[in-house]
Amino acid sequence: MKVGIAGFGTIGAKVGRALDDGLEGLTLEAVTGRDVEKTRAAVAGLKHPVDVVSPEELARRCDVIVECVPTAAFESIAIPALKAKRTLITVSAAALLRHPEIVELARSSGGQIILATGALLGLDAVRAAAQGTIHSVTMITRKPPKSLVGAPHLVENKIDVESLTAPLMVFEGTAREGAKAFPANVNVAAALGLAGVGPDRTMLQVWADPTLERNTHTIKVDADSARFEMRIENVPTPEKPGTGKITALSVIATLKGLRAPLKVGT
């Protein structure tokens, strides 16, 4: 199975190195990136040569496309991949909320979108509960201020988080609203919404917390089948504090699941 990677940054480079080292039944065929020369320099460190191509060429040559680009570039990767009937693996749940037509394209073309778990946990349990009746889903995200700097919601509302000495709730609303307010920070909330009762019924709080060093998410679900609470503390990547180290690992696990003789959970 030939794999292509779109975006060779914090997540894409780690996935690329895993493929380069060897994942059973999978080979890294090609990559694409906005800055061609920068991308070529990044893949030059791999053990096996990899072509840097356009998104359209990536879709033609690869069976699976791993999407790791900024939200603004999501469509430029997803559309050609799905038109070519490919499998698109992504952690960009916020982009899927902004572009629901992408799901319809997958349906009509025969392609498939796989939303990897990313920095979250428990999506299997939420999906299972959603087969019955879920009464409420709440998510509380707490991050070190440096992980939130530059978010549109903070900029538009002139909220300074860098000088905080105590935790501050900077947002409260639905997962859909949160995905728009913090597009680079709360893909987890958008994914939770898609797994359960929808982004408009999934409630979200975002806190800037100077006492923390890890990005922390707490999920509370009340359903007719179960009541559960989950908490995860993600170690931030040095290159991009808003992204947890586990995000790239979840994509690698998703890729391995495509070919594994035994697949546990999603």
Quickly describe the structure.
With 266 residues, the protein is of the alpha/beta class. It has helices spanning 10-21, 36-43, 55-61, 74-83, 93-98, 101-109, 123-129, 145-148, 152-156, 175-181, 187-195, 245-259; strands at residues 2-6, 27-32, 51-52, 64-67, 87-90, 112-115, 134-143, 168-174, 202-208, 215-223, 227-234.
Q: What's the CATH class label of the largest domain?
A: Alpha Beta
- Report how far the terminal alpha carbons are from each other: 19 Å
**Radius of gyration based on Cα positions:** 18 Å
Uncertain stretches: none
User: N-to-C SSE series?
Assistant: EHEHEHEHEHHEHEHHEHHEEEH
Number of helices: 12
Level-2 CATH architecture of the largest domain = 3-Layer(aba) Sandwich
Sequence of strands across the biggest β-sheet: 3-2-1-4-5-6
The proportion of residues in beta strands is: 15-25%
Shape label = globular
CATH superfamily of the largest domain: NAD(P)-binding Rossmann-like Domain
Compute the number of strand runs. Answer: 11
Give the overall average pLDDT: 94
Number of domains: 2
The largest sheet is: 6 strands, parallel
CATH fold annotation of the largest domain: Rossmann fold
Structural class: alpha/beta
> What share of the residues lie within helices?
25-40%
